[in-house]
Design a protein that fits this description.
The chain is of the alpha/beta class. Helices cover about 30% and strands about 25% of the residues. It has helices at about 20-35, 50-60, 95-105, 125-135, 170-180, 195-205, 235-245, 265-270, 310, 315-325, 345-355, 385-395, 420-425, and strands at about 5, 15, 40, 65-70, 70-75, 90, 110-115, 135-140, 150, 160, 185-190, 210, 215-220, 230, 250-260, 275-285, 290-295, 305, 330, 360-365, 365-370, 380, 405, 435.
Length: about 450
């Protein structure tokens, strides 16, 4: 469905699950392909971005079988791949392109990574620079160091790299290259970014070494194949968390969701805004996961800035919606990274908020949002960005009159079935709490 029509909705009363974590699904495929044998991945997110990663490794000669929608069996080949017969299409996935660069930089063949129009505008110099220092030969054929990327693989050496940005993708690309490099590779960040790659390395019995803001890996190690269960995506859950938290009377339980401390900043922000949120970690192997419970109330404004920004970077569009529903003026700053996501998310969020009647002061690195305005139904664009589409679908459920979200096919990159889930949750309050499953194994 390319466009969505959304009406004002009542309070949420539900128990649900969300699709598998996108960041972890990417890495589960990659690390299983690098390992030394068969592994089964359950809870895999069958969104277009993660399917791009899966298809990339199939092009590189890795046998991959999907036994059902969310279960994948991979035969790893110890990091030995075959040259692709053609370009590797990364679609809209920056994670696929950037992390694949780290792996392909060490392969004894030429490869070329392409992407859609949006991905071809996103910055790649941030990974090309450190990989070049390691000895990689990467040519950016696009403007300003963007895709397509041509990689002439070859021997690499370990380096000590200080990243100017806190980026899990940059860190991961360098550490993945470090697995093939001679010596030790160290990445130091200005603040800690997500640690899914470090956790996945340890799960496959390759121990990264953490020292403050630095993480190191030694080259020449073999990953041990291990089965892996992908938890639900906290970034996908965030849309429902905000919808419930900002609606007095709502009660929502989200089960089997990832609770990695590097990803739960959205919960901390909502609690600071006055939301009634609790979490219980029920599983802690590799990636912690469990249940989040939310009870709706009237939210209040807050400041989102500084070291917590890398922890909530993907959730900032929906947190901006929470700000619009809160009392007072919320400030978001130090989030310049939003300018170079699937779209310029600062500009997109500001434009769409104004369409609903929200006062917004756009800044170079964020925005200031005046909450509490009477919201009117609006017609807004997704800008081809899945998180913009879903964030404003949630805001539309609080607005008077019908709203329309245009160009929503992009949502399939991360949350197939989101619109159908929205309609299930928007039903009038039932006598019993419904149990709603979303692309999760039984």
């Amino acid at each position: 469905m390319p466009d969505w029509k959304i009406e004002k909705a009542p309070a949420i009363h539900a128990e649900m699950t969300v699709p598998g974590d996108k960041s972890i699904s990417h890495r589960a495929i990659m690390f299983a392909a690098l390992a030394n044998g068969r592994a089964e991945i359950t809870g895999f997110l069958p969104g277009e971005d993660c399917l791009s990663t899966m298809k990339a490794f199939q092009q590189l000669g890795i046998p991959i079988e999907r036994t059902d929608e969310t279960t994948v069996i991979i035969e790893g080949k110890r990091g030995h791949f075959t040259a692709p017969s053609g370009d590797i299409d990364c679609g809209n996935s920056g994670t696929t392109m950037r992390l694949m660069c780290g792996i392909l930089a060490a392969q004894p063949f030429r490869s070329r990574l392409t992407g859609d129009a949006s991905l071809s505008k996103r910055p790649m110099k941030r990974i090309i620079d450190p990989l070049t220092q390691m000895g990689a030969k990467i040519t950016a054929e696009g403007e300003k160091g963007s895709a397509p990327l041509v990689i002439e693989g070859g021997p690499l050496k370990g380096i000590e790299y200080t990243s100017p940005v806190a980026s899990a993708q940059v860190k991961s690309a360098v550490l993945l290259a470090g697995l093939f490099a001679k010596g030790t590779t160290t990445v130091t960040e200005p603040v800690l970014s997500r640690d899914h790659t470090e956790r996945m390395l340890a799960w496959h019995l390759v121990r990264p070494r953490r020292n403050g803001l630095s993480v190191s890996v030694s080259g020449g190690q073999t990953l041990e194949s291990r089965d892996f269960a992908v938890p639900g995506d906290i970034s996908s859950a965030a849309f429902w968390l905000v919808a419930a938290a900002a609606h007095p009377g709502s009660h929502l339980l989200i089960k089997d969701v990832g609770l990695n401390p590097a990803r739960t900043g959205v919960l901390a922000v909502l609690i600071r805004m006055g939301a009634h949120v609790s979490e219980i970690v029920e599983h802690s192997e590799c990636e912690p996961s469990g249940t989040v419970e939310v009870r709706g109330t009237k939210l209040r404004a807050t400041v989102i800035a500084g070291a917590e920004i890398p922890n909530v970077i993907d959730e900032l569009p929906i947190l901006a919606v929470a700000a619009a529903l809160a009392d007072g003026r919320t400030i978001i700053r130090d989030a310049h990274e939003l300018r170079v996501k699937e779209t310029d998310r600062i500009a997109a969020v500001a434009k769409n908020l104004r369409a609903f009647g929200v006062l917004v002061d756009e800044k170079e690195d964020g925005m200031e949002i005046e909450g509490g305005a009477k919201l009117r139904g609006a017609t807004v664009e997704s800008f081809g960005d899945h998180r913009i589409a879903m964030a404003f679908a949630i805001l539309a459920t609080f607005a008077e009159g019908a709203s329309h979200i245009r160009d929503t096919a992009c949502v399939d990159t991360s949350y197939p079935g989101f619109y159908e889930m929205l309609h299930k949750l928007a039903k009038p309050e039932p006598s019993e709490i419904p149990v709603i499953s979303s692309l999760r194994p039984e």
